[in-house]
Each structure stands twice: as C-alpha cells, then as structure tokens.
# Entry
Amino acid sequence: MKNENRKYILVRTDGTYSVVEILDEEFFSQVRKLLCGNLIQRFYLFNSEYMFFKPNANPGVEKINFYATHLNQVLHKGNSILGDTLIGRCYGVEVTGLTSDSINKYIGLLEKNGYENKCT
# Structure
C-alpha cells in the first residue's frame, strides 16, 4: 500500500518546528539523517500517532526537547527526551505521515507552547 500522507512534523530542541515530507522508500534513511542517529525509537501519542526519537542521545552534547519530554512525561511518566524528534503515524510496522487535521493539531499545540515554524 502506497502512503498518501508523507508529511511529518520535525520538533527541534531550539524551539522551532517544520513540516517535512519524506518518501516511503526513503523513510528510515531520512529519519536517521534528520535525527542524527542510527537507532530510532518511538513512543505512542494518540490515535496511532507516534513520536520518533534517538534513544542514545548524548546528554553532554544534545539539548532537552521540552515538547517531547512533556508529552512523554504526561502520557507515559517517561524520562526526558534529548535531541530533535519527528511526529508521524504507525499502523503495525507501516509508518505513514500525518493527516492534515493532525498536522494542524500539533502545529496549534507547538505554537501555543512558543514554538516557531522554521522551514527546512
């Protein structure tokens, strides 16, 4: 099944975000490049939506991602998330982009928390 939704939200530690488009066949290589890591994990948000992050981030080098940390703590009583993160959807093992409604929802939440849109 081809993914029609190819848009994801990249949430950076510097207080900015971008809507990025990733082709299906390039997803994992692009995510590794965007998040600067070979190993990528995810945690569940809402309605098959997940946040992808680099689990082995270096605390001495990478900054806390306050938005991702807040979501992880509220939803899962989890730890701090370091480094940039990516929001998308998963259906089993298939990763897809977000719907327009989901993109608008996250942009609203990000901007309400002081994040600014920064094109990649």
Notes: The helical segments are 27-35, 66-76, 100-112. Residues 21 and 91 are 18 Å apart (CA to CA).
